[in-house]
Write a structure and sequence with these properties.
The structure holds 2 protein chains of 2 kinds. Chain A has 13 helices and 2 strands, in the order ααααααααααββααα. By secondary structure, chain A is mainly alpha-helical. Chain A has a two-stranded antiparallel sheet. Chain A starts with 20 loop residues before the first helix and ends with a helix. In chain B, helix 1 crosses helix 8 and helix 2 runs antiparallel to helix 6. The two termini of chain B are 33 Å apart. The model of chain B has no long low-confidence stretch (mean pLDDT 97). The chains are: A mainly alpha, B mainly alpha. The interface between A and B is large, with 50 and 52 residues. Chain A: GO terms for molecular function: phenylacetyl-CoA 1,2-epoxidase activity.
């Protein structure tokens, strides 16, 4: 999940009877599975909530280029390098569609970028963890993209049309990303002793941060209840986390790797795995800016933006000159 | 001299490998999101072309080296890329000027290779032309846009041109490998493309309001491997590190 801890109105979900006619019609349309489009009436809270959620998702795609970019120049074969480049290019493309989807709600990409760079808006906690060996490229694809897909597949049915449509394309690409990550893990897990060690180490470091991607339990959260009523959140964080664990544990077993959780075990009664919660203190530390790479990630984005200013200004100035020349000629 | 066709394939493949690697260094830190996508796309094309050229080089050599073996297990003196390709990225302007100067040559040369007597060379050229046509379109637009943009962007682009122009000449120097390629009908003499290149450069630079340096001095030594710049060794330490640190692993 690339959006975490998204705040809603904080006022709890209204019943249909409590709503004004306009809002009631809006909610009934959502309840009936209809889509809300940019020009339709929508409550302010819905608009703000979506801007936060889509913006955070977009920022995650953009910042998410950095931990993988860290290995593009060290990819071990031409094929792996090409695949990783294609993947990072996809991530930037996802950022682009998502910013476009957010723009239909009345913000600009520049507004959102400013809020990312100032630290006002967040991106997923996962990208504040370092990528230390080549196996981390496998773990990021397998676990991080795997966790993202858990959330994004249901979002293809989200109530806001532009967001749902962006998700359809994103999900197709993400599932390729996950497969390439697992493919790297297979090579590593079946490779030399050093490669197996890298693979296990990557799983050890990325397991709990991946579980954190779904956010803390929100079964009692008013924000979450409102988002679910609006169908911009389709499942609770706990449901998605459980689904992720259930899917991933057999994959780890197939690789011959050990999930770093001594309490992990199959529960016949529930039909799910029991597992340990991640360290939520660490999660809140990362959100506050104290993750291993928060400083580097924001510095890298700010540096890119600042050093790119002359380029953006230059190209805009040229475009303005061309427009003026064209008008003068007409 | 080793087999001239092997040398020729290494020259083509090392150009795309080294430049593709340089462009990939931009991952995630471009001036604007669209440029992140375009840079990754360009790097991806170049790495794909590398697989084909170095793959062919390995076949021609016939000693069991594949494209990866050639890319990751040769040292500086065995690389055959032109010096322009290995120049550091500098700012975005320098990166795009390098790209423009290279693309302009690359497209002309590849178009000529499409009628090569060597079937695989012609096929690789045909595939590459489609990609490089787009590379040149984009690098040309960017050089014009930034050259004729603000005072600052103009100054930076002029500086990039002054810095990189001495590396242009090497792309057009003929040597015995080229002579063997001409003889076999595989590739044209690089010098035969110079006039067309200069004409193209003059047109674009005029529109970009940039001034071509008067001095035609050309650094050389990359395509022969005689003397690369210091930059290439540092690139290889990064690019080849995993392969060399774990030589018994497959990835």
């Amino acid at each position: 999940m690339y959006a975490q801890m998204i705040k809603s109105t904080g006022q709890g979900v209204k019943s249909l009877d409590e709503m004004e006619p306009e809002e009631r019609a809006f909610q009934e349309r959502i309840n009936a599975g209809g889509k809300i489009e940019p020009k339709d009436w929508m409550p302010d809270g819905y608009r703000k909530n979506l801007i936060r959620q889509i913006g955070q998702h977009a920022h995650s795609e953009i910042v998410g280029q950095l931990p993988e970019g860290n290995w593009i120049t060290r990819a071990p074969t031409l094929e792996r390098k090409a695949i990783l480049l294609a993947k990072v290019q996809d991530e930037a493309g996802h950022g682009l569609y998502l910013y476009c989807a957010a723009e239909t709600l009345g913000v600009t990409r520049d507004d959102l970028t400013r809020d990312l760079l100032s630290g006002k808006m967040k991106y997923s906690s996962i990208f504040n963890y370092p990528t230390l060996t080549w196996a981390d490229m496998g773990a990021v694809g397998w676990l991080v993209d795997g966790a993202a897909i858990m959330n994004q597949v249901p979002l293809q049915r989200t109530s806001y049309g532009p967001y749902a449509r962006a998700m359809v394309r994103i999900c197709k690409e993400e599932s390729f990303h996950q497969r390439q990550g697992y493919d790297i893990m297979m090579k590593m897990a079946n490779g030399t002793e050093a490669q197996r060690r890298m693979a296990q180490d990557a799983l050890n470091r990325f397991w709990y941060p991946s579980l954190m991607m779904f956010g803390p339990s929100d079964k009692d959260s008013v924000h979450s209840a409102q988002s679910m009523a609006w169908k911009i959140k389709m499942n609770t964080n706990d449901e998605l986390r459980q689904k992720f664990v259930d899917q991933t544990v057999p994959q780890a077993e197939y690789l011959g790797l050990t999930v770093p959780d001594e309490h992990l075990k199959w529960n016949e009664e529930t039909g799910h795995y029991d597992f340990s919660e991640p360290d939520w203190t660490e999660f809140f530390d990362v959100l506050k800016g104290n993750g291993p790479c928060n400083t580097e990630r924001l510095e890298a984005r700010n540096k890119a933006w600042d050093e790119g200013r002359w380029v953006r200004e230059g190209l805009l100035a040229h475009a303005a000159k061309k427009r003026a020349a064209k008008m003068a000629a007409e | 001299m080793s087999d001239p066709l092997f040398e020729f394939c290494c020259r083509m493949g090392d150009n795309t490998l080294v430049l593709g690697h340089r462009v990939s260094e931009w991952c995630g830190v471009a001036p604007v999101l669209e440029e992140d996508i375009a840079l990754a796309n360009t790097a991806l094309d170049l790495i794909g072309q590398t697989q084909l050229w170095l793959g062919l080089a390995g076949e021609v050599e016939g000693k069991g080296r594949d494209a990866d073996k050639l890319a990751f297990h040769r040292d500086v003196w065995d690389f055959r890329n032109v010096l322009l390709a290995e120049q550091p990225n500098g700012d975005f302007g320098q990166t795009m000027m390098r790209q423009f100067l290279f693309d302009s040559w690359h497209l002309m040369y590849l178009k000529a290779l499409m009628s090569s007597s060597h079937e695989q060379v012609a096929a690789i050229a045909e595939k590459s032309v489609k990609e490089v046509t787009y590379h040149l379109e984009r690098s040309t637009d960017t050089v014009i846009g930034l050259g004729d943009g603000t005072t600052e962007s103009h100054e930076r682009m002029q500086k990039a041109l002054d810095r990189l122009y001495p590396f242009v000449g090497e792309m057009f120097i003929d040597d015995e490998v080229d002579a063997a390629m001409v003889e076999a009908g595989i590739a044209p003499d690089p010098s035969s493309l110079r006039a067309e290149y200069d004409a193209h450069l003059d047109t674009v630079l005029a529109e970009a309001t940039l001034t071509k340096p008067e001095d035609d001095f050309a650094h050389k030594g990359g395509k022969t491997g005689v003397r690369h710049t210091e930059h290439l060794g540092h690139m290889l330490t990064q690019m080849q590190w995993l392969q060399r640190a774990y030589p018994d692993a497959t990835w």
